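Below is how a single chain appears once it has passed through the pipeline. First comes the sequence as given, then the structure the pipeline wrote out for it. We keep one example in the README because the format questions we get most often are answered faster by looking than by reading.
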Amino acid sequence: MLKALTLPAVIAASALIASGCAAFSDDDSASDGELRVVAGLYPLQWVTQQVAGDEVEVEDLTQPGQEPHDLELSPKETADVASADLVVYEKGLQAAIDNAVDQTSTGTALDVSKVARLEPVGHNGHDDVDHRAGETTDEEAQEAQESMGDLDPHFWQDPLRMADVADAVADQLSDVDPDHASTYAANAKKVVAELKALDGEYSTGLAHCQRDTIVVSHNAFGYLGRYGLYVEPIAGLSPDAEPTPADLARLHELIKKDGITTVFGERLVSPKLADTLASDMHVTAAILDPIEGLTSETSDDDYLSLMHANLAALKKANSCQ
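Resulting structure:
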């Protein structure tokens, strides 16, 4: 039979447990006075870091080389979301982050999907981003989603949408850290100017091309429709999707009919499908980076340099003047 604890023993044990819990809590939540900001994936981390500048180090919840669509958060990363002063994420893209924000976040959460005015993905896997320079309103996007299905999350392929996100990030950072509001505003103005210049380079660089269709490994480039491009993906929105024989037959015919010279693969997923299609059709296999995350090959790059590399690849593939 177990002996009953004496009152002094109970008090001592309780004090030990309490002190242990307090120590864990202090280590887990101690504040160093710095702003804590996390972002769901690289494009959001990049634009948030540009606005934050030297005031804060923005943590990317998706590690380099990791496919962001399939993200699972570690206990530490979940705790980082819970304790962050600001979480910048795109609702509907990474379920693990959506759940962490809904269940544990105690700070401000900026869902950029509303700011970026996401466009719909069409019923056949083709992006239906309008091939105009205009923007779709929130109401139009909502109507399109209800009638056509999912929205395309890859808005960062459009620098002007990234510029809108930069302004929204500046507003949120100013709200949580008003002492540095002028710094955030100035940083946002600078990055918006850079993004508008990038948009101008795409508009000019893709204005006069022999072809206007690109074949890509997965449906991550629909927002390039602003520049007159039509996107034909091998897979759908998910890079893990498998094309049907009918899909491949259609792409074979398209490549022959339109004189397409290049099939674009990417870095974060296997290039096997793109390489095989290119080999079968005797055309070039090249890389068009969705810029969903950095890899060991692109660790010295950033969003702007990768967008410039993509532009060069597009101009070469489509014989742009």
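Residues 181-205 form the longest helix (25 residues).

See the next section for the split statistics.
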